[in-house]
Amino acid sequence: MRSSVPGAPDRRPATQGEQAAAPLLEVANAFEIPGRWRGSVPYGSGHIHDTFLVVFEQDGRPVRFVQQRLNTRVFHDPHAVMENVRRVTEHQRVALERAGVADTERRALRLVPARERGFEYVDTEGGFWRTFAFIEGASSQDVIRSPEDARVAAEAFGRFQAMLADLPAPRLAETIPHFHDARARFEALEAAAAHDALDRLDGCRAELDGFRRNEPLLDRLDRLHAEGLLPERIAHNDTKLNNVLTDDRTGEALCVIDLDTVMPGLVLHDFGDLVRTATSPTPEDERDLSRIDVQPAMLAALARGYLDGAGGFLTPAERDELVFSGILVTLVVGMRFLTDHLEGDGYFRAHRPGHNLDRARSQLRLAERILSRRDELEAIVGEASHGPTPPSLFRSP
Ligand code: ADP
Ligand code: GN1
Ligand code: MG
Questions:
Q1: 3-state DSSP call for residue 182?
Q2: Could you report the per-residue pLDDT of 327-368, keeping only the tens digit for each?
Q3: Cβ 70 under 6 angstroms from ligand 2
């Protein structure tokens, strides 16, 4: 058993009550924002941080910001996170300006300086805060709506990776070590099941068996990496669909957000998380399992968009694993949800009893749907990436 379970949280979940108790005025005024604070309300559907939409009145008009209390149970070194985010967003801005792109303000997150120090503020209760300029006229989706939306989201993440390929040294900090370590995630699930601290195991044996059944798949990408076939690059590492903002007017993908896990890794994890979140017509916590499936048109659009955005840098081995990456990441996120369910929902924000179990079940179903349709899906992705290919491209692990 590894000593470091990736991002292992303290056991105490954050509650709505704690959110309400946050000293929001104190926090709002801790950053270099001119004007008068008008209010802060909880915002978005992320599972990790406490996110607030904050309004200031400046010269008689409302100006919006996003303030986040970082989840320091998940990110143990918030200063390292902030330094990564600062470097990444500055690099993006320079690259966008150099390329003469219009509207750079809406295409990269902008951190707002804190009054006292850097870009962070620690409140009187110990909460660690940061502020971003709000990207106006854009929104994120939790469920994919059309192949065109899938294409633009994947292109944005591909472009994001391409833009960071020449980030100057030093290496970015690993903000959550072993984040995509499938073997460590499996071991953490087994440990949670063995411990069964809350007597929940009886209610989720079928799901545990489901993940055990797929255990032979888990080492494939790490093995290819060890063999030198899959290089380390800078990846986003959390490319779920709602981490890209699209323009409300044009539908164009404007800005990749949620940069806290941007760190060295395998770019395939990014494509895999897009497959997980942008191919089924269902939300991540869908309870009607019969509705969960991969839609080939969405997958084809993802592959086209991603390959366009990433440009030429992908190796043939990376291209060959695109469908497999979807199976792997979906399994891994599913195992993480089940582990959290067994341990008492201290990591992913849960909105109802059994929420993380519902999420785990839906991920298992989706992974197995992709697995069972792999030949068909390999052919579709192969066409997008290499021109026509026979459906036998998928190699068993
Ligand atoms: P989490 O890690 O909890 O998912 P995110 O950084 O993804 O937190 O933020 C949560 C949500 O807040 C996003 O899905 C998005 O809708 C919204 N959001 C975050 N930053 C911005 C921003 N700068 N402008 C507009 N909306 C934002
Ligand atoms: C979390 O932060 P958010 O909600 O975008 C999680 C991802 C999971 C995802 C599952 C830092 O993403 O790894 O895939 O939930 N982020 C972290 O929805 O653990
Ligand atoms: Mg997010």
A1: helix
A2: 999 999 999 999 999 999 999 999 999 999 999 999 999 999
A3: no
Between β-strands 253-256 and 244-247, what pairing exists: parallel, antiparallel or unpaired? antiparallel
User: Looking at the DSSP assignment, which residues form a beta bridge with residue 58?
Assistant: 61
Q: Is residue 3 part of a domain?
A: no
| 45 alpha carbon, closest ligand | 1
- CA quadruple 281, 325, 191, 264: dihedral sign: negative
Show the tokens assigned to 390: 């026979």
For residue 4, what are its two tokens? Answer: 């470091």
pTM: 0.92
Q: Is the pLDDT of residue 217 over 50?
A: yes
> At 108, phi and psi to the nearest 5?
-145, 140
Question: Tokens 């440990």 belong to which residue?
Answer: 191
Residues 91 and 200 in one domain: no
My answer on whether 238 and 121 are in the same domain is: no
- List CB contacts of 298: < 8 A, sequence separation 6 or more: 144, 147, 150, 278, 279
Ligand 1 pocket residue status of 259, Cβ below 6 Å? no
Q: Is 238 in the pocket of ligand 2 (CB under 6 A)?
A: yes
The tens digit of pLDDT for each residue in 230-242 reads 999 999 999 999 9
Sign of the torsion angle spanned by Cα atoms 202, 209, 241, 90: positive
How many CA atoms are closer than 13 Å to the CA of 168, on its beta-carbon side?
Answer: 5
Total tally of structural domains belonging to the chain: 2
Could you tell me if 129 and 42 lie in one domain? yes
- Closest-approaching ligand to the CA atom of 242: 1
